[in-house]
Every structure is written in structure tokens, then in C-alpha cells.
Specification:
3 domains, two-stranded antiparallel ribbon, 52% helix
């Protein structure tokens, strides 16, 4: 139990120090605010699987259940034969072993994991594999990203700089498109305010009178 507490303390302290030093920069130009929650979710799932795996029953053999394990794991009289545990003083089913660290007999004993402080057995191997799969996927993603950088002779800093350049070019193109649309709109408004001739050219003639003809005023 002390090992579990130390392990969780190291994990929690490490995450707290990283979060305290880096969360002030999130969200930023390169990272969105969702990274705060995804990192917490990943650590939370890892801790949950770690606790479930550590505290799950590995298949402890007791006097009350030894008979059912005998039917599930019979002797083959080759590498497993009838034997009694010298510590527990109960018959040992095939594929079982007494763990000197946990001080109990377990079925399908594989090994005692010092990192997670658990017994790797048939009952815990599914949770253990899920935990290792998640950790492996995270490490594989990290490895793939940096392998790509090595193969393309690129640094992380240059990747960020290139993204910044692309974003800057996109903003320039958007500004040019907006300016062109505004100019076209202004030209359209000025054209609509002028009277047009039949051939489409603007006309400045007064429709009420022509040159040389003075308008008649009503003097009455």
C-alpha cells in the first residue's frame, strides 16, 4: 500500500507542477483550450485503470473456494501435480503459486508487478492490458510525431513557425478579398446613382428640357 501511495503522490505532484507551469499559456496561438481537459482526462483514465488493476482480486485461493479452482485448473501430472502450499496449508490447484510478497496463493500466477504493486494473473490481465495499451498509444503518438520531424529534418520550433506563416498568409488573402469586395460594392453604388443612355453610357441630360430651351416659369 505504501508503494501505491508513493506512486500516486509522484504522479499527482508531477501533473500538478506541469499544469501550474503550462496551463497559464493555454489557450495560446499553438494550443487550444481543450488541451487542458484532454490532459486531465488522460491522466484521470490512467489513474482509474491503475487503481482498478491494483485493487482487483487476482484470484486468491482460499479453503472456501479451492474446490472450484480444482475443477477449473486440473493437474496434468507433467509440470503440475498434486501439492500443498507449505505456507497456506491448503492444496494448490494447477497453475497456482504462493506470492511471497502478498503472502497468498493465486491462480494463473504470472508475476508480481513492482511498478503497479499488483499480481498479474488471469483475473487482472485484461485491466492490465487496457492500462498498458493506453500508455503505449500515448507513447506511440509522441514517438511518431518526433520520428516524422527527424525524417523531414525539421524541428518543433520550425513546425510552429511554418504554421504561423501559413496563418499569416491566410489573413493577408482574406484582407485582399475583403478589400476587393468593398471596392466592387462602392463602384456598384456609384454606377447605380447615374442615369444611363440607351447604349449603357451615363447621361447628364435633364429629362424636362434640352440645351437651348429655357424652362417655362409659371408667373400666374
Amino acid at each position: 500500500m505504501a508503494i501505491l501511495i508513493i506512486y500516486l503522490a509522484i504522479l499527482g505532484g508531477t501533473y500538478y507542477s506541469i499544469a501550474k507551469s503550462s496551463f497559464s499559456y493555454i489557450p495560446s496561438y499553438y494550443l487550444s483550450g481543450v488541451h487542458r481537459y484532454t490532459s486531465l482526462l488522460a491522466v484521470g483514465i490512467g489513474v482509474l485503470l491503475f487503481l482498478l488493476t491494483s485493487f482487483s482480486d487476482p484470484g486468491t485461493v482460499k479453503a472456501e473456494n479451492v474446490s472450484q479452482y480444482f475443477s477449473a485448473y486440473p493437474y496434468n501430472n507433467v509440470i503440475y501435480s498434486e501439492k500443498e502450499c507449505s505456507t497456506c496449508k491448503i492444496p494448490k490447484p494447477a497453475r497456482s503459486k504462493h506470492c511471497s510478497i502478498c503472502d497468498r496463493c493465486v491462480v494463473c500466477f504470472d508475476h508480481h508487478c513492482g511498478w503497479m504493486w499488483l499480481l498479474a494473473t488471469y483475473n487482472t490481465q485484461i485491466l492490465l492490458m487496457v492500462f498498458l495499451a493506453i500508455v503505449s498509444l500515448l507513447l506511440a503518438g509522441f514517438f511518431s510525431y518526433h520520428a516524422k520531424l527527424c525524417l523531414t529534418n525539421t524541428t518543433t520550433n520550425e513546425t510552429f513557425k511554418w504554421q504561423e506563416y501559413i496563418s499569416w498568409q491566410g489573413k493577408i488573402n482574406e484582407a485582399k478579398a475583403s478589400a476587393a469586395a468593398l471596392k466592387a460594392s462602392i463602384n456598384g453604388m456609384s454606377t447605380e446613382g447615374k442615369p444611363q443612355k440607351a447604349n449603357g453610357e451615363p447621361s447628364f441630360e435633364n429629362p424636362q428640357w434640352k440645351i437651348g430651351e429655357a424652362p417655362v416659369r409659371d408667373t400666374m
